[in-house]
């Protein structure tokens, strides 16, 4: 038993180093979310365009919705392009009104529900980001 103890320690140390080396989830700045992202439009206006960008940047990538997402209570699902977990989502409504939702954690949240509250589009409290996403009306 005493002869096999150094071998066991060596094997365990090797396994520990391999496990802690650099998991892809910690080192990769970009991540492809496998689950579809759901968008629910509970506003009175139709969504005509959606784009996403890494949080804090203006490098938006268009999302193909296929057609407008009518207001009322309609939903669609789409695949997000690979990128970081924190994303800014830009929503364009009929009448060219644009709303930007900042720092949406798409790795922990797999959808948004757009509501109208006092004439502004907001996302309800989002546990993943520690509070409501910040809504910024662009124009």
UniProtKB/TrEMBL annotation:
* Keyword annotations of the record: Signal
Signal peptide residue numbers:
1-18
Q: Which PROSITE patterns match?
A: PROKAR_LIPOPROTEIN
Task: List the protein's name.
Answer: Uncharacterized protein
Organism whose genome encodes this protein: Luteibacter pinisoli
